[in-house]
Design brief:
Blueprint: H1 34-50, H2 56-86, H3 99-131, E1 134-136, H4 144-158, E2 165-167, E3 182-188, E4 198-203, E5 211-213, E6 222-226, H5 227-234, E7 243-254, H6 268-278, E8 284-290, H7 295-305, E9 312-315, H8 325-330, H9 355-361, E10 364-368, H10 374-385, E11 389-396, H11 404-414, E12 418-423, H12 431-443, E13 447-449, E14 456-457, E15 461-468, E16 471-479, E17 491-498, H13 501-515, E18 527-529, H14 533-549, E19 555-560, H15 566-577, E20 581-586, E21 603-608, E22 613-614, E23 617-621, E24 628-632, H16 638-642, E25 644-650, H17 654-670, E26 675-678, E27 684-686, H18 698-709
Parallel strand pairs: 1-6, 8-9, 11-12, 12-13, 14-25, 17-22, 19-20, 20-21
Antiparallel strand pairs: 2-4, 3-4, 3-7, 5-6, 7-8, 10-17, 11-15, 15-16, 16-17, 18-25, 19-23, 21-26, 23-24, 24-25, 26-27
Length: about 725
Amino acid sequence: MPVSRSKRRSSVPPSDIPKSKPRGEGEKSVFGNREQSWLAFNRRVLDQARNPDNPLLERVKFLAIVSSNLDEFFEIRVAGLMQQADSESSGLSIDGLTPREQLRRVLKEVSTLVHDQYACWHKELVPALDRAGIQFRSGAQLTAAEKTWLQEYFQTQVLPVLTPLAVDQAHPFPLLANKTLNVLVSLDNPETPGQDKLMIILPVPRSLPRIVHIEPAAPGPRRHIFLSEIIKLCGGQLFPGYVVENANAFRVTRNSDLYIDEEEAENLLKKIEEELRNLRRGAAVRLEIEDGVDTEMLGVLCGHLGLESDYAIRLKGPLNLLRLMSLYEMIDRPDLKYPPYVPADPTTLTGHKTIFDLIRERDVLLHHPYESFAPVVEFVQQAARDPEVLAIKQTLYRTSGDSPVVRALIDASVAGKQVTALVELMARFDEANNIKWARELEEAGVHVVYGLVGHKTHCKCCLVVRREGTVLRRYLHLGTGNYNPKTARLYTDISLLTCRDHLAAEVAQLFNTLTGLGRTPEFKHLLVAPFNLHSRTQELINAEAANAAAGRPARIIAKMNKLVDPVTIENLYAASQAGVKIDLIVRATCCLLPGVKGLSENIRLRNIVGRFLEHARIFYFENAGQPLVYCGSADWMSRNFFRRVEALFPVEDPELRRRLIEDLLPIELRDNEDARELQPDGTYAPVPRAAGEEPFRAQKYFMAAAGLRAGSAGSVAPMAAVAVVPPPAA
């Protein structure tokens, strides 16, 4: 059935969780719960914060990431469950739970996770920081001299930008923007004893630093204090004649999902801009507040926010550990951070006049961040400068604020080339940034389009059309990650540069489908959502099952971010039962239960949480001895299969395919340090080691191997002593 651009989808996106039948009493689901699986992943991040083998300030960063992840979890996932719980038509989760039951379980697990997070901060990281000469002070720990300094700091830097807001009959409850810091103050009037306490809210402007370096010029250990502590210590100056009974920092998390009715949105860009402004006052889904708050005041606050008390989380401070990210930047202590790592420059890119000369000679595979993202940027920049290049077509999902890729597209358009950019305006939390780029691109004459209505454009493709004599040749970059040089230093991804004509023809067809109208396209080599990706994935899995049943070689190794689609999971179960050995590397959410007797005994599932964020999607099928390897943008989720435009591309060059099969996937399956294995009960356990087996980190191996492969081991100086061991057989 063709996908029509004239048809619009509902403003409320369908749930990623399919409707299921309720389980009978005592019946166990063959699926894991999506929300609890995500929380198990976030606990893996917390494990890195608690791991003393990691540098101290890196542990602090991991702790901050836990908070950032929880923010997004409440803004999107919990918000969605709350809406489902309020809807009588909501279905059950993949594992047969009602929304209310999921919420009950989620809140219980979040409570435990947050308790452990703060225990890590207070009992592990704060003492370790103190031993390293980095101290954090509470108001009660300040010396007289420090109090004097902070009073002056408050008077000059904080007080002028604070505005106290009373909450009473004459003052309505203020609009508290999403995730902003506030202080709830309870005041007592000495002249009217026995009367109700007065409620004041102090919104703290985002412009103020959340961590303050006390007396920066003073000798001795670095001393820090959180801004909320300063306000609680000095804020009484705002209320002369009153007594401050209590002061507690708090923040509100709001529903941050965008619901755009594309049927009514004649100008999608303007509609999203309006909706982004509305997010500031989305429904409250969580209240975080410091422990010790007056119970009566807390009840009033929850009432104004429309929140049940179950969604009010009391914390033993400090509020919002995401603020600790700034500590990493504030402190210049290389001994407390990962050694600097410079991505290797592949030697394959040297000795050629242009990057197009190289790609004509052979396909190029890059493994980021171990190998530099610079060749990908150079690919677009050379295309912009090259007078023989006639056209550039590019997808943009997320990119950096100073994107050299976008600048190159603008330069190409100004130079008179035909430039088309598919900008995904609804890339979650990057909407405002993408709107900015869309406007700048349009002003430069770039054709900016937004793809298929109702489908996010998530594929990572760049097509360059170049005149070479009398021939027009098409060059491609296909990837698993975004066109963002900054995150390319932090995320593990795969890039392929090629000019294979059959692949270029299908990528051109994909762009034409996204920018124009027509029947549903057919793809023979690419796996493209929402067209053939889901069906071909099932065919590939089922073919392995048939091969195993017939005694032919059968094997599946799949690496992705999330695994949720029930049809795919059921086919993996069937393949396991047919005898297919299956190794899955799933970074985050997973609803498959491995190692269950009679169901998934041949499935092993692990994730890796380390220095870099695992982001590549790689899929290997043994195919009876004729291996097939695909890379691309899609996870195995319903949203990726049916509600996004995704592309998986085959790696056809034998040497590059061998590199993935023998040098990359087996190395990740060998990790016994950063990896954990998913258990049948949905928990993660350390990877068991054989007697005498040495600790092994895949990411550490890849850093060393990339430098040696590029002939530039000096760029990996901290890893110079690491031996590159030969990889095991696939």
